[in-house]
Write a structure and sequence with these properties.
alpha+beta, globular, Aminopeptidase, binds coenzyme A
Length: 180
């Protein structure tokens, strides 16, 4: 079963759109990077092969459990991803956001624009959502800066809350609330 594709969201620095199989080579080039991998959940592949990218661009990113996944397109190529994954059942007023972008595109304001667009889309199109949250590795200053820039606030210190590369690590959690 696959989820409905999210709509294309146009920004001034990037376009957010559903992934297609043709995006796999570009996605793989940007994802296969230790500097990206070290900040992402343990299941993010390393090395990130073309087969991994093809699987993600076809069925993986469309699996209902993934929620909504957009590729981040800059200069006609996919250079990263951003996702919005609603929780289920009695927690369905929450959704987790996640994002990454290839190192060649860091510090150009692109991810901040992408997160701002997805956040605005969630409030406008998912009336059940009241809270968006982003768990972030505690050392990841860049990701925390992106979250703050988009109006998310630090809501929790999650000490010893994840294992990355065999090490127990601290995370922090940022959140944004629907204004009522
Ligand atoms: C973290 C990441 C998403 C930032 O993306 P980006 O497109 O470079 O971020 P932006 O250009 O939108 O920057 C937003 C703000 O963060 C700051 N920032 C970005 N990277 C930073 C870093 N490494 N350290 C400190 N601040 C940083 C920018 O200076 C900017 O602040 P400013 O507007 O006040 O100058 C990107 O580095 C990345 O994908 N890293 C690897 C994967 C990852 O960490 N994903 C997030 C997992 S929670």
């Amino acid at each position: 079963m696959t989820a409905a594709s999210p709509p294309t969201l146009q920004g001034s620095l990037c376009t957010l759109r559903p992934l297609t199989l043709n995006d796999a080579p570009s996605l793989q080039r940007h994802a296969d990077d230790e500097a990206v991998w070290r900040n992402l959940f343990e299941g993010f592949p390393r090395p990130y092969t073309l087969v991994d990218a093809q699987a993600w661009c076809s069925t993986g990113s469309r699996a209902p459990a993934m929620g909504h996944v957009w590729g981040i397109e800059v200069d006609d190529q996919i250079v990263g991803c951003i996702s919005l994954r609603p929780d289920a059942g009695w927690l369905r007023c929450n959704a987790e956001v996640g994002y990454w972008i290839g190192q060649a595109f860091w510090r150009r304001g692109i991810t901040s624009e992408a997160l701002a667009r997805v956040t605005a889309w969630a409030w406008a199109n998912r009336p059940e959502l009241m809270r968006l949250y982003a768990p972030i590795f505690a050392w990841n200053e860049g990701s925390q800066a992106v979250a703050r820039k988009c109006g998310y606030f630090l809501e929790a210190q999650l000490r010893c809350s994840a294992i990355k590369d065999g090490r127990v690590i601290d995370r922090v959690q940022y959140a944004a609330l629907r204004s009522r």
